[in-house]
Amino acid sequence: MIGDYGHEVCYAVNSNGKYTLSPSLGWEAKNVVNDQAWALIAVETERAYRSVKNGELSPIAYHQARHQMDIGLLASYVNMARWRVIRHRKPAVFRRLPERILQKYAMVFGVSIAELQTVPEAFSPESLRHR
């Protein structure tokens, strides 16, 4: 079962010996690897979540982890230097960001500015797979 996503389509040989498209629940090894990858993503996102809740990082770090972005990728999406994105992850700097900068981040993460400035009340690994 490809995570919680349903079926994937694969080629299979039918009763006439011809190749045909066939729905599949996936290959067991692939499912195990996918589950392990999602577990790692959940651990990294929860770590960022806790750092935001503890006041060590800005909400950008949580949204970045949730969307599986490293600093370089996020910097390219918001069209800023990496050092600026790193700086924006500091809570004191983040609180002073102008709306035009917040809007860039919000657009990349697909959230409103208000959602960008917060994190959920509680962390839920299940929410990562269903965004």
Word description of this protein:
By secondary structure, this protein is mostly helical. The chain has one domain: 434 Repressor (Amino-terminal Domain) (Orthogonal Bundle). It is 56% helix and 9% strand. It is built from 8 helices and 2 strands; from the N terminus they run ββαααααααα. It has helices at residues 28-53, 59-66, 71-78, 82-88, 91-95, 99-109, 113-116, 126-129; strands at residues 8-13, 19-24. Strands 1-2 form a two-stranded antiparallel sheet. A hairpin with a 5-residue loop joins strand 1 (8-13) and strand 2. Helix 1 (28-53) packs antiparallel against helix 2 (59-66) and helix 3 packs across helix 4 (82-88). It is elongated. The relative contact order is 0.13. The model has no long low-confidence stretch (mean pLDDT 86).
Approximately what portion of the residues adopt beta-strand conformation? 5-15%
Outline:
elongated
Strand order of the largest sheet: 1-2
N-C termini distance: 19 Å
Poorly predicted tracts of residues = none
Per DSSP, the total helix count is 8
Major sheet: 2 strands, antiparallel
Helix/strand structural class:
mainly alpha
Which CATH architecture would you pick? Orthogonal Bundle
Q: Taking all residues together, what is the mean pLDDT?
A: 86
